[in-house]
Amino acid sequence: MWRDGYTRRDFRADVAAGVVVAIVALPLSMALAIAIGLPPQHGLYTAIVAGATIPLLGGSRTQVSGPTAAFVAVLLPIVQHHGLAGLLLSTLLAGAMMACLGLLRFGRFIQLVPYPVVAGFTAGIAITIASGQLAGLLGMKGVAGKAHFHEVLGELWRCLPTTSFVDLGIGLLTIALLIMVPRLTARVPAPLIAIVVATLLSSLLESSALADLVTVDDRFGFADAAGTWHRGVPPGAPSQVWPWQAGGPGGEPFDLDYARLRELLLAAVAIAVLGAIESLLSAVAADSMTGTRHDPDAELFAQGLGNVFAPFFGGFAATGAIARTATNIRSGAVSPVAAITHAGALLVAVMTITPVLGRMPIAAMSALLLFVAWRMADVRHVARVLRIAPRADRAVLVTCLGLTVAFDMVVGVVAGLVLACLLFLRRMAQLTGVRILLPDEARAGLSVPVPDGVLVYAIEGPLFFGAAERAMRALDSIGRLGATVVLDLGGVQTIDATGLVNLESALARLRVGEARTIVVAPGGEVADALTRAGIVDDGRALFVREGRRDAFELAAELAAAVQTSSASHSG
């Protein structure tokens, strides 16, 4: 960035963009913390600490990081079962894993996750988020927090009589503003107008005693240094905490035994995988908007460090946020200074306007997350993929989506990846072609004729464990048809241990009397593998390693010699 020339004009553009992104991130960070069962300040602390740490070392110039909606389905069960301490420890472990993946240069491998898997679990997470926010939108009372989709629906049905139509009206107004404002103006962020209008209207209704809406002040509070309880969001910068001392689900001391550590490790793996995928997808989206290229390994390492530092200040899992990154770019950001400014602006807000933040209605914040979930699901695009994609890819997407909703993201992603890998192996196996060349085909382009009694068996494509058995099977039927078989491996790009074992077994089956097999593998990786495996002139097979045409011509000469020798021996 600095080598390209960073001017005062760029700095002013970055600062302005950072302030705009902070306006968008402020209510969203609070809403995401509430969605996973935590007080709203923890979402702000995440955006401040991780949002400032990651761009300092990251591989993307314009990416903005912080809490994201994708994490809700993963983090909510952790909070319910292990409390704040469990969540902070899981985030810390996940950050260490992501940093190690970056150091090991695994960034490019994360980008190889098949699109149907990404689309499936993303849509599944969106459905989970939406179901969890309906209670807040409807102003329901007495709703117990549940982790699974069917349990959430059961709670919604049980508490349906407690619906508040005033809260619902505030929520619907918020959604309407989120939809309409971008169509009227692009200069002012829609979340700013929607949340400000909803907060003002809520305060007006409460002050005039016309309605009693649920706000942040009503649901959350904090104790000061003297132990006095206060409503709302605590003012001031995030203070240092030890993650393991943050308390269990009910605030009780946190007991880190072996069983709990094992569960936290599994949760950390889920956070690390999702965080890596989300951050790199966001970085790719940023590249497409700016024409730049990010460093996936540096970005992954920075995301890991951000998630290591955030728990020591009350923050939880963070990753690259596509919506905030897009807002950052559209607002004119050109460097990481914008993302750092966004974190600084949030810090100023926490230190100065917390009384205002406490007046935000819960219904409006639930509406904001419902809107985010709708955009996250991208229903039109998913429907188009289901319409045009091959049947196998549709099966992967639907399976991943269904399992994510029914169970959780880990089950959905693992099942989707396993199914996608099996389909990939099948497709790769289908690329391996096998055929017996007719005499005229075998002789074409060769200066040395191929004898009539020789069969030429050509394999084209990778000879790996998914295709080796199928490729070698046809040799069983041709071994009896000719005294000499020329096995042409010139079209094989790669061979693995299974391919070698199947090849050796096929060569053993081809030995009939004095028949010989000539294996042609001209140069490269395949020839090296055959040499290491000891496939040489061992009485069963003669290995020819030259240039493609030279090797085949030499094989023709050897086949002719074998045929002549066999004829004279018979005579």
What does this entry look like structurally?
The protein is an alpha/beta fold and 571 residues long. It folds into two domains: 8-220 and 268-423, no CATH class; 433-570, STAS domain (Transcription Regulator spoIIAA), CATH 3.30.750. 63% of the residues lie in helices and 7% in strands. It has 24 helices and nine strands. The protein has helices at 8-35, 41-57, 72-103, 107-110, 115-137, 149-158, 165-184, 190-207, 216-219, 258-290, 296-309, 322-330, 337-352, 354-357, 362-377, 379-388, 391-406, 409-431, 439-443, 468-473, 475-478, 497-510, 524-533, 548-570; strands at 65-66, 221-223, 229-231, 319-320, 433-437, 454-460, 484-491, 516-520, 541-544. The protein has a five-stranded mixed sheet with strand order 5-6-7-8-9. The longest helix is centred in the middle third of the chain and has 33 residues, at 258-290. The chain is elongated and about 110 Å long.
